Amino acid sequence: MYRGIGACDGIVIAKAFVLKKEDAVFAARSVLSAEEEVKRYNNAVKKFVEDTTVLAAQVEKNAGVEQASIIEAHAIMANDPDVKDSVLAEIKDNMATAEAAVVNAFTSVIAMFSAMPDEYMRERAHDLADIKARILEILTGKKRHSIEDISQECIIIARDMTPSETGRINKTVIKGVITEIGGITGHMAIMAKAMELPTVLGMEGMLKNVQTGDTIALDGSTGEVIINPTEADLARYKNLASEYDIYKKELEVYKNRQSITLDGVHVEIAANIGGTEDLEAVIKNNADGIGLFRTEFLFMGRDSLPNEDTQFEVYKKVTEAMGDKPVIIRTLDIGGDKDVPYLDMKKEENPFLGYRAIRLCLGNKEMFSIQLRALLRASRYGNIKIMLPMISTVTELRQAKAIIFELKTELEKEGKPFNKDIQIGIMIETPASCLIADILAKEADFFSIGTNDLTQYTMAVDRGNEKVQYLYSTYEPAVMRSIYNVIKSAKKAGIMVGMCGESAGDVNMIPFLLACGLDEFSMSAQSILRAKKEICNLSKQELEKQIDVILNMSSREDIYNYCNRQR
Ligand code: PEP
Ligand code: MG
Fold this sequence. Notes:
alpha/beta, 8-stranded mixed sheet, 14% strand, binds phosphoenolpyruvate, binds magnesium ion
C-alpha cells in the first residue's frame, strides 16, 4: 500500500494505464535555408495558437473557465518574445532545424524556470514543457502517447499531468489519476477538484512499480493507493466504494435543506466562482449565494483589458442567475502569483508583498473605475456586493469608497440606474487588517476572511513554496486566534462576517468557525453539500464551550487533533 496526497475524493478500482510522455523524436538533418526553418517554426506556433483556442473551449466545458484560462495563457507564452528570439537565434546562428531549435531554446528556458526559488515560477516550467512538446508534435507530425487514444476504463499513472492534458480527460473512460509529482495547490489538484476526478498526487516512484494492466485501488480522500490488491483489499475497497456512494446520495438530501444548526442558528453556505461557467455547479448544489467571484480570471488569458460592457454582461449574467441571493464580487486581485501579461507589470523582488490587489487598483484608477462602473451598473439586476481584496489600512478602504462615490454621481448624471445602497465589504487577509478589524468594521459593510492569504502572511510563509509548507496551516494558533478576533470585531460592530478561503469548506474547521459566529461559509461548489450536512448536525451552543479550549492550545498539531476528534 502506498500513500500520496489525496487531491480529489472518490474510490476507484480499475486497470492502470501508464502514460509515458517522451517528446516526439526527429531525425537530425542539415539545414539548407534558415529562412525556411523560421517559416516552419512560425507556422507551427500559429497552428499551436489555433489548436489552443479549440482546446481551451474543450477545457472550459470539462473543467470550467478558471482552468481554461490556464490553457489560454499557453498561447500567450508560446508567443513570448524572449522564447521566440532564442528559437530564432538557434536557427539563424547555429543553422539548427526548427525542431532542434525548439528543443534547445525551450530546454534552457525550462531549466531556468525549474531553478527559480518561487513555487509559482517553477510551476511555469511544466507549462513550458507542455508547450514545447505540443509544438514538436506539430513540427514532426508525430503525436505523443496521448490520453485521447485511451478507450478502456482505467486509472492514469503519469510522472505529472499538464493542465492541457488534464482538461482533455474523458471521464467516461479515465476514472482516476495518480501522478508522481504535484501538490495540493498545483493546477492538477485544482482541476481535478473542479472535474470531480479522484486523484492522488506526489506518489514518487509509481512509474517504476506499476505496469499498464495492473489493477489499482485508489482512495482519493485518504491518498491511499494499492497496486494489484488482494481479494481482501478488493472486498474492503468495494465496501468503501458503496459507502461512498451512499454518502454521496445522502448528501443530495441537503440540496433543498437550509443550513440551520440543531439549535436553530442559520448560516449561509455560498460558492466561490471564477466565471459564468462555474454557475452550473453552483445551481446544481443550490448554494445560498456567491461568496467570492474571483474576477481576475476575466482579465487573464486574453491580450487586452476587458472593457466596461464586456464586464457588465458577465456580472449581470452571474447576478441574474442567482436571483435575489447575494453575489459578492471581488474587485481585481492580480499581482502576487497572478500575472496579466498585457498590463506589463514590473518584476518584483517580493511579489506577494508588492503591488497587488487593491494597491494595484488604487494605482490604476482608470482600470479600477471601469470595473467598478460595470459592477454598479450590474447591481440593479440582483443583490451584488462589492468586495475589496488585500485591505491593510482604513485609508485604502476610504480611497476605494471615494472612487465608488464619484462613479455613482457620474452614473446618476448619465441616467444609468444602479443599486444606491450597494454594500462595500473587504477581505480580511493581512495581519494588519486583523489587528485593526474593530476599526475597519466601522467603515466596511461586511468582512470575508481569506484564510489562504491570511495564513501566508500571518506565518510569513509563501503559500506556494513547498520547502516551507510545514509552516503553512490555518490550524496554527496564531491564525486561529486572528480568525476568532476578526469574527468578534465584526459581531460587535453588527456587520456580516464570512470566509472565502479554503478553510471555510474544511469540515474539521467548520465547528470552530460556527462556534465563533461566522455567518457565511464560501467554498467550491463541490464542497457545499458536505458542509451543509456538517452544519445541520451541529449545535452552536454546544460548540461554544470549545472555543477557549482551542484558543489556549499551544500547537497546530494539538488544535488539528482536537478539531478532528470532535467530529
Ligand atoms: C484567500 O486569500 O483566502 C482568498 C480567498 O483569495 P485568493 O485565494 O484568491 O488569494
Ligand atoms: Mg487572497
